[in-house]
Sequence to fold (565 residues):
Amino acid sequence: MKIAVCIKRVADSETRVKIGPDGKSLDEAGVKFVLNPYDEFAVEEALRRKEAAGAGEIAVIALGPAAAQETIRTALPIGADRGVLLQADRVPADGLETAKALAAELKAGGWDLILFGKMAIDDYNHQVGPMVAELLGLPCVTSIGHLELAGRKGVAEREVEGGLEVVEFPLPVVLTADKGLNEPRYPALKGIMAAKKKPLEVKPATFGPGGVEVLAMLPPPARQEGRIVGEGAAAVPELIRLLREEAKVL
Amino acid sequence: MSNVLAVLEQRDGTLRKVSHEVVTGARRLADGLGGTVEALVLGAGAVRGTDALGSFGADTVVTATNPAFARYAPEGFTQAVAERAKAGGFGAVVFAASATGKDLAPRVAATLGVALAADATDVAVEGGKVVVTRPIYAGKALLKVKLTTQPAVVSLRPNVFTPVERPKAGAAQAVSVDAPAGREAGALDVAEAPIVISGGRGLKEPANFKLLEELARAFGGKAAVGASRAVVDAGWRPHADQVGQTGKTVSPSLYIAVGISGAIQHLAGMRTSKTIVAINKDKDAPIFKVADYGIVGDLFEIVPKLAEEIRKLHG
Fold:
């Protein structure tokens, strides 16, 4: 079983977002960067599939700045075999450019599974996985919460509004992982030490001009200061009145 | 001048409510581009609800029928939408950022070789180009981008583009646009529900979520129950219900946070709600900073009282 996991280095979810001096990007000063939380499920799934198959190879591929090597290293201790960094100063604003660079890297790999997180918690694009599938001409199931593989076939479940879709597919396939697909394990100390010796290849990423021009990064509109209506159940009638007469939502 | 393709969704042969929002967003772009709106829906046969689309701003409604279109299937839908998008020479193609739209829009964009601006909360035309505002970092910031490839592919965040009834000429103009709630199959999803009631650790144990479910029922099928990350990670609620940066970002007209202190990643996921109500015993909880209305006190007394009052209104 040959498995590629595409991961991203993102600002931690507890980050207080400050806009940088260019007015178009995050001020990275003091920001802690982590492996994108949804990618943890993809890495864990790769590991479980390799264990189930009894043999195989897992490559962890990231596109990002030199510092993304650290992010790849965090994914390697839990069982991945090697890492690839497509190095670029910035991840393109156009997800299709990222997808093209990843697809070029993945094309000749002979992968059985190509895994992504369903989205990155920084740019919220949720598009690179299915775009890579489209560029490679592979089937793709996005946002999967459950996966079963048997031979060269698989069944995945994905959540849709008010229900589940059950999708059958042949291998090779591109899958994007949702929370709940599995419970990621913590790396053992032995694995962390071993990871330092695992190969990590760095190559430059190249992009086209893309179709997204960032005009501005803006703070979200401030919410008007709210107020405490009262204390305990006695305050409920006044809340109802405000919701009806002031907010007009009831 | 260029036209706009609005890609709609149906389930079990009935147009999904989010489709009205897609037509509304598409109309806004078409007005800016000086073009018309073509609404496209794929189904196994005739789709109920399409006759009302004229009043939301659609100029033409195309129902593409094929037995294989009864349910969403990525390859067939991608091909059909991409072909229509190419053939029509559209300036923009608009989707919902729903479960289906999030799956379909990237494939169509990649097939067309153009950029996608996903999960838009605002769209406009500036200098003949489509400009999209979209939340990033789960809403801690907004990114304003210009799409320079044609067609501009955009997906719209559910619940943001309030459908507007328009007195516009169109074949479907005479039809009522009163879309009844509860016509959709299955339960309401927190990402699309007009009212979301979320619970956190303050509920003390999983069984107590029944209080929130009762309150949701009092709203007569318009409310869904969400949850904080803490209670999802504790296994009290399914991950599908999680509101926050690693869950769903929601923008309902009314968000009620019950027993949720308001971690930054939770606030990011719900701060774009139109009206926020917080119920918490700790008057210093961060949730009160973003709430329009707060009640300090014991949720086990307040929530049943609230349900009772809401039932009276709907009685």
User: Anything to note?
Assistant: Chain A has six helices and 13 strands. The longest strand of chain A covers residues 140-150. The mean pLDDT of chain A is 94. Chain A touches chain B through 78 residues (CB under 8 Å).
